[in-house]
Amino acid sequence: MRFIARKLGFYLAAAWVALTVNFLLPRFIPGNPVEVLIARMQQSGPTPPGEAQALAKLLGLGSGNIFQRYGQYVDSVAHLRLGLSVSDFPTPVSSEIASSIFWTLILVGVATVISFVLGVGLGALAGWKRGTWLDAIVPSTTLLTAMPYFWFGLILVYVFATNVFHVLPASNGYDTSAALTVGFNGPFIASAAEHAILPALSIIVTSIGGWLLGMRNMMVSTLSEDYVVAAEAKGLTSSRIMIGYAARNAVLPSISGFAISLGFVVSGAIAMEYVFSYPGLGFKLVTAVSNDDYPLMQGIFLVITLAVLGANLVVDLLHGFIDPRTRIAR
Amino acid sequence: MTATNITSAGPDAAPGAGGPDGAGLGGSGRLGRLREAFRSRRLVAGTSIVGFFVLLGLIGPFFIGNPNHIGGPQYAAPSVHYWLGTTQIGQDVFAQLVVSTRASLEIGVGAALLATIISIILGISGGYAGGFIDEAVSLLSNVVLVIPTLPLVIVILAYVKSGGLVPLIVIIALTSWAASARVLRAQTLSVRNREYVLAARASCERPWRIVLVEIMPNELPIIVSQFIFGMIFAILTQAALAFIGLGDPSLLTWGNMLNIAYSDEALSAGAWWWILPPGLCIALLGMGLALINFSLDELLNPRLRVYRPRRPARGVPAAPAGPAGFAGTAS
Fold first, then answer.
1. Cα B10 from Cα B7, distance rounded (Å)
2. Is this complex's ipTM strictly greater than 0.85?
3. Domain boundaries in chain B?
4. Quick check: A308 and B282 CB within 8 A?
5. Cβ within 8 Å, pair B267-A323
6. How far apart are CA A33 and CA B217, in angstroms?
């Protein structure tokens, strides 16, 4: 119980830091951003009354001293009053986020899990068969890890979509030219899956090396433990020793590393979504930045950060559940 | 990375890094170690790759004319005259690549250096001081570690809107020091109660001198390894930022080249010679740096050396020190 409370406290502190950074940053905008933004909104249509005040509160530029402004800002965020998008006026930022978050969640989530399972599995095998050809190719995965996600995505587009083979779509999340209704229906899901292959592949290929290497090294360390020798002495089958004794213990650091690497994967996915014009949060963030759409930018930053923190919390709690030592230690 | 790894990395690295001669203070010992190290094929490969890029970045630009010179044909394929072809407006891709090497390396080294300095100050002093300072510093570094870096850097850059190398280096460094601060803190915790540190404390050495003269030299290998990971991270981050259009357009880097190539539709024009080389340079340099780190781990971690005789010969190098190495790659 105490373990859960501590973890919860830590992630609340992290969320508070992210929230506060987000509050402080708009101060760097030169000039009066509220006036500029309202002027731009008015070019695209009439602004609702009170929008200027709401925007000022959201950007932490409201009235009163800094503490009052902070209070107004927290109040806006807590009530999800994230303002209106400037580049896509007058869509509220919250519905912009709602329309794109599932694309990213599903794509990045599925790709990360596939990459983790494949990488850990292959790593366990390479560590188990250390010294064989399988183990010998492990160092070459550093090349994969050092590749920028987005560049590998470009290469995939070149090879499989636009120039060499014309087998897979190069951009968008689904076939926008065909008359498809977005929702839970066969043709749409088929189209979305087809469009997700290349983006997912670019995440999997570039992130698998880290899992593979970490798991392989832990596996090699674990194999020298006494309990593995004891298991061998008992005459257990080698597959049982490998999975039940060695891999089971060697996987723990990879699971705890999962949390940290999630932020890395999400970061990589931003530039990757830009390559594929994938309708997720990353692509929206890039569009918002290039349009100086501060409310949208701020909303997406908060959502991405909170999502990563939430996922970290879940992994941490899971890790405490799997490995009792982490519950008492520290 | 998380604490499980740190704790397992701590004792692992300690015997190699610890002890008065451990960090290579003795002359002959160091030479012997270096010779031993260069028997590792990974280190030779890694240093050759990195050395090649450093030379290219240092002296290459002197042999290349103005990389932005528009003189060639548009989208010419690689030929004897244009080694890597030309861009959409007829610039020499090879010249751009060489000039980009310098700025990309500058960003990598600058950001990694700054991040390493921050992590030394916070990590070692936190670990040495203990108590409240330690608690506060490790809370801070854990928080910085879990907040996803790239979205944060993107948002900061979008607000600050300043071009040039220095702001970029500072922003990347300020968001990437946390992982190495954690590793250094863990190592300091294991070193601070060794006899020679206690002896220095007993003879009333000043704290800053104990940290700088007694503790830091023994953590030098870890610091170097964290610096190398910092460099990979900074180069990758800069490339991603420049690619999505947040780079200084007047600055020629690998990421900027990719950004221009992508927005000028090099893909649909089939100009693979414009897209392929910058990314390949990033990946190769990153691989070279990672290889150096692996052999560094292997050299300093006796536990890994124990495995060598057990493996069948064929010169398969021993395992890189898993946790610490993995931490850097993943975060």
1. 5
2. no
3. 32-304
4. no
5. no
6. 49
Which stretches of chain A are DSSP H helices? 2-24, 33-44, 51-58, 66-78, 93-128, 133-136, 141-146, 149-156, 186-223, 226-233, 238-240, 248-276, 281-290, 294-322, 325-328
End-to-end CA distance of chain B: 7
Q: What is the pLDDT of residues B143-173, one digit of tens each?
A: 888 888 888 888 888 887 766 788 888 988 9
Tens digits of residue pLDDT in B21-38: 333 334 456 666 666 666
Contacts of residue A161, Cβ cutoff 8 Å, sequence gap at least 6: A167, A168, A169, A170, A198
Class of domain B32-304: mainly alpha
Query: Contact at 8 Å (CB) between B105 and B53?
Result: yes
The confidence band for B220, taking pLDDT boundaries of 50, 70 and 90, is confident
According to DSSP, residue A60 is labeled T
Is there a contact between B150 and A330 if contact means CB atoms under 8 Å apart?
no
Q: Which residue carries 């990974």 as its tokens?
A: B42
> Residue A83 corresponds to which tokens in the numbers above?
């303002």
Provide the chain A residues 136-195 that lie in CB contact (below 8 A) with chain B. Answer: 136, 139, 142-143, 145-152, 154-155, 157-158, 162-163, 170
Which range, of A9-13, A232-236, B85-89, B169-173, averages the lowest pLDDT?
A: B85-89
Residue A81: CB partners within 8 Å, gap ≥ 6?
Answer: A54, A58
B140's CB contacts (< 8 A; 6+ apart) are: B122, B178
| Domain architecture of chain A: domains with CATH | 2-78 (no CATH), 103-327 (1.10.3720.10)
Say which amino acid occupies A151: W
Task: DSSP letter for A279, please.
Answer: S
* Distance to chain A for B232, nearest Cα, Å: 8
The answer to whether A203 and A112 are in contact (CB under 8 A) is yes
A 60-99: CB under 8 A from B = none
Q: How many CB atoms lie within 10 A of CB B254?
A: 29
pLDDT computed for residue B113 by the predictor: 94
pTM, full prediction: 0.81
- Bridge partners (DSSP) of residue A168 are none
B293: which strand partners? Answer: none
Catalogue the long-range contacts made by B7-12 (C-beta closer than 8 Å, 24 or more residues apart).
B7/A329, B7/B186, B8/A253, B8/B323, B9/B183, B9/B186, B9/B321, B9/B323, B9/B324, B9/B327, B10/B186, B10/B187, B10/B189, B10/B190, B11/B190, B12/B301, B12/B303, B12/B321, B12/B323, B12/B324
Report the distance separating Cα B10 and Cα B22, nearest Å.
Answer: 15
The DSSP letter of residue B214 is: I
Calculate how close chain A gets to B72, using CA atoms only, in Å. Answer: 24
Sign of CA dihedral B244, B246, B248, B253: negative
Backbone dihedral angles phi then psi of residue B4, each to the nearest 5 degrees = -55, -40
Task: Give yes or no for A28 touching B (CB within 8 A).
Answer: yes
* Helix %, strand %, coil % of chain B (to 5): 75, 0, 25
pLDDT tens track for A272-329 = 888 888 888 888 888 888 888 888 888 888 888 888 888 888 888 887 777 777 666 4
Q: How many CB atoms lie within 10 A of CB A328?
A: 9
Nearest to B267 among A17, A154, A260 (CB): A154
Residue A218 touches partner B, C-beta closer than 8 Å: yes
